[in-house]
Fold this sequence. Notes:
Blueprint: H1 7-17, H2 22-29, H3 33-40, H4 50-64, H5 68-85, H6 98-127
Helix pairs in contact: 4-5
Amino acid sequence: MSDGSSFGGDLRRERELREVSLQEISEATKISMKFLRAIEENQFDLLPGGVFNVGFIRAYAKYIGVDDDEMVNNYLFHMQQLKAENGEEPDLSASRSKGQSSGRMAAWIIVALVVVAAAVAASWYFFGR
């Protein structure tokens, strides 16, 4: 999708190809025009940050009909590149895909269930007699 230009420029091109206005996206997603323009102009410092930025990117991409997971991953990659260019330590955990983090969460849930089951069994064994 990228021709070596910017994340926001790529997103704007995809929007324009589909003949969707920023106003239309704003009305449908309830994201302010100010934030939509900031995304297209790569002015991410004007956005609230964190999960809000990811949510905005995801909603924008879904509305115009492009793969929202791919767009979020492109955004996270773009942000890592900016950090590296500015000499900041990249946060590699932010670039994980949704599937990787949900898999890790499932593993922790299973471990917690096993611990709870063991505690219940031990309680029954020691106190249930």
